[in-house]
Amino acid sequence: MFVRDGKVVTSPSDLSAAAACEWAFLRELDARLGRIDAPPRTEDPMLRRAAELGDKHEVAVLERLREQHAVVVEIPRPDVRDEASLAEAVERTQQALAEGADVVFQATFADEDMIGFADFLVRQRDGSYQVQDSKLARSAKVTALLQLAAYAEQLARTGVAVAPSAVLILGDGTRSEHALADVVPVFRERRAHLRRLVAERLADDAPLAWGDARYLACGR
After folding, report:
1. Would you give the DSSP letter of residue 209?
2. How far apart are the C-alpha atoms of 130 and 44, rounded to whole Å?
3. Rounded to whole angstroms, how far apart are CA atoms 157 and 53?
4. Are 148 and 116 in contact (CB under 8 A)?
5. For the chain: N or C, fewer Cβ within 10 A?
6. Half-sphere exposure of 118 toward its Cβ, with a 13 Å CA cutoff?
7. Which pTM was predicted?
8. Is the dihedral angle over the CA atoms 180, 16, 31, 197 positive or is it negative?
9. Comparing C-alpha atoms, which of 77, 175, 166 is closest to residue 128?
């Protein structure tokens, strides 16, 4: 999440953050809006290690896909605050899909208020693309499914045929496949809710107070 020209731009991971704790998400938004100091951040060695292992898992999946497919296009990660850099990454993504790449890695999508990067888009025999994401976890989590749905919605928005299911490639190597017809409606509801949360914060000049009954809080 970041603020550009007074507009809040979110990501699929913000859906997860708001689902875990609306209050924490909105306090972070207040900090981005300059209403409060940014919350103190302390490095968590466990989280750092998990991130490192997650990156290794992603690279391993990418290498397997390179062995299995002839054309794998990697989209360089743009500077999301630079409109030109972001537009170039989006254009490269669309070009790779239009040319029928077997796999697109780190596909970049952006609409009016959300930016996302899909781990893998894999072309199917019928020409559609299946959204696949690598996760270190050993079982599928709702937050991960929301991200799959977000990328599928963005893919469909650009006019690309989307496979009816999406896949999580888990840390133990198993593939967890999920019908988008079951997941996308939940994503749409959660995104609409996220937009309402952001709109309410933008309409209120005062920082969010602890105990505000409008918002759920995890208590941590």
Report:
1. P
2. 34
3. 32
4. no
5. C
6. 31
7. 0.90
8. positive
9. 166
Map residue 110 onto helix, strand or coil: strand
What beta strand segments (E) does the chain contain?
A: 2-4, 7-9, 72-74, 103-110, 115-123, 129-134, 165-169, 175-179
* Residue with tokens 């996220």, as numbered in its chain: 194
Quote the CA–CA distance of 190 and 198 in Å, as a whole number: 12
Q: Are 118 and 106 in contact (CB under 8 A)?
A: yes
* 138 half-sphere exposure, CB direction, 13 A CA radius: 1
Domain ranges of the chain: 45-189
The pLDDT tens digits along the chain (220 residues) read 999 888 899 999 999 899 889 999 999 999 999 999 987 777 788 888 888 888 898 999 999 999 999 999 999 999 988 999 999 999 999 999 999 999 999 999 998 899 999 999 999 999 999 999 998 887 888 889 999 999 999 999 999 999 999 999 998 889 999 999 999 999 999 999 999 999 999 999 999 999 999 999 987 7
